[in-house]
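re: ur question from yesterday

yeah so i grabbed the chain u mentioned. its 197 aa long if i counted rite. heres the sequnce exactly as i have it in my notes:
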Amino acid sequence: MSGTSETVSTSFSSHYVTDGFYENVLSDVKVFDGDFPPVSLELRAEAERVLFKESRLIDELRLEEWLSLFSEESLYWVPTVPGGGDPRKEVSIAFDDRRRLEDRIYRIRTGYAYSQLPLSRTRRMLTNIEVTERHSTDELFVRTNFILSEFRVGVLESFSGWIGYKMIKEKGEWKIKLKMVNLIDSDQAHDNLTFIL
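ran it thru and got these structure tokens back, copy pasting raw so excuse formatting
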């Protein structure tokens, strides 16, 4: 398994998940429902590179490298409410800040994450990628459809929906600030969604 020798720095606390953080997330989510005025071909290509790399790293279980694509104050969110809803009032399949993502990777690497023994094998495809700026060229919003195949314990399953990303420039590199995965059947029961969507 690739990446097992790498370590993940530990943040220990969710100091940035405040009322203001929730308000910013809800404001950002509204962007995904609006129009996506096009950006330059160069910016679009940069955003696509991040998306394709992120997908490949997850599928190859290079999870420490995957986490390095995220901002220090980031969010991985899989809502049950189509289009998001309000995570302060509604249950989410996942609502993981940076600390929880670090914990998730650590548990997988220990071999004691029984819901991921054996580990899920995944492959995903992205399509209909839309990229737009919001306040500046250092802040991009991306919306893409996806189809994901997961194989575990002899069972092959498919998942689909759309993903909303907010990317920001940090020290000259694009980092994922928000990844919101919207399953088309998010409001239905699921057996095991402990792998990374």
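noticed a couple things. Residues 1-11 have pLDDT under 50 and may be disordered. also Strands lie at 70-79, 92-97, 121-133, 139-152, 155-170, 173-183.
anyway ttyl
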